[in-house]
UniProtKB/TrEMBL annotation:
<keyword id="KW-0560">Oxidoreductase</keyword>
<dbReference type="InterPro" id="IPR029479">
    <property type="entry name" value="Nitroreductase"/>
</dbReference>
<comment type="similarity">
    <text>Belongs to the nitroreductase family.</text>
</comment>
<dbReference type="Pfam" id="PF00881">
    <property type="entry name" value="Nitroreductase"/>
</dbReference>
<feature type="domain" description="Nitroreductase">
    <location>
        <begin position="26"/>
        <end position="221"/>
    </location>
</feature>
<protein>
    <submittedName>
        <fullName>Nitroreductase family protein</fullName>
    </submittedName>
</protein>
<dbReference type="InterPro" id="IPR000415">
    <property type="entry name" value="Nitroreductase-like"/>
</dbReference>
Length: 243
């Protein structure tokens, strides 16, 4: 696997502004401690709310943490989660990423870990997927439409289907939030490390037991500069018409 630096193409469909935003949307983990105004955070949540929502159910909620005392209580949880990640999945550089570049990324992760209490804002996207409304007639019609083999496979893949259904209702909005942050000059990065200790996070933040959390997004003004992302070449990932 190879990586390339992605530069925005001003001639791309949609004009240069959006594509420039996307092509310079690095994960920015070194944040200034300066506060982010509430109205600016509201803009980020508004962008998230504009995102697609499966079935237009809109069952999302966003926990926004800006209080320093609350952030200080979350910092030890963040440290435990990051340390767990760096000891396992994060121990090795991804294939195609050189060790020096990965070392710089780990250094940024460790910086964010060690300065988490100074994070200006933390956004936790949540979702409570409603119970499905099913009846016998509908279940019979569904089985007939899918056929017996596919119906049986669906019965054994409900856990994965449920996870994907929930995620598809949440993550488009999170991506909108990240795009809005970049457009406003804010640094942000999406993580799911909090899931290692999700119950502890939910308890600390008073999140209801039946509400699922999908990310922890630190937000603030960047210490460094935005720059082009490094991604796999488009030609390496496209399968036209079939695999």
């Amino acid at each position: 696997m190879t990586m390339e630096t992605v530069q925005a193409d001003p001639s791309a469909l949609g004009g240069p502004a959006l594509f420039d935003t996307m092509s310079t949307m690095r994960a920015m983990r070194r944040l200034k401690p300066d506060a982010v105004p509430d109205e600016t955070i509201d803009q980020l949540i508004q962008a998230a709310v504009w995102g697609p929502s499966g079935g237009n159910m809109q069952c999302y909620e966003y926990v926004v943490v800006t209080d320093r005392e609350v952030m200080a209580r979350l910092a030890p949880l963040w440290k435990r989660c990051v340390d767990s990640y760096l000891a396992t999945t994060g121990k090795y550089a991804p294939e195609g990423m050189d060790e020096a570049a990965y070392g710089r990324m780990v250094a940024a992760i460790e910086y964010q870990r060690d300065h988490f209490a100074d994070t200006p804002a933390l956004i936790i996207p949540c979702y409570r997927f409603p119970a499905p409304r099913l009846d016998e007639e509908g279940l019979i019609a569904s089985a007939q439409a899918l056929g017996p083999e596919a119906s049986e496979r669906m019965m054994t893949s409900q856990t994965r289907f449920q996870a994907l259904a929930e995620g598809s209702c949440v993550y488009p909005g999170v991506q909108n939030l990240l795009l809005a942050a970049r457009g406003l000059g804010l640094a942000a990065n999406i993580t799911i490390w909090h899931l290692f200790l999700e119950q502890e996070w939910k308890q600390e933040l008073g999140i209801p037991e039946d509400m699922a959390t999908f990310a922890a997004v630190p937000v603030g003004w960047p210490q460094g500069n935005f720059g082009p992302v490094r991604r796999r070449p488009v030609a390496d990932v496209i399968h036209r018409n079939r695999w």
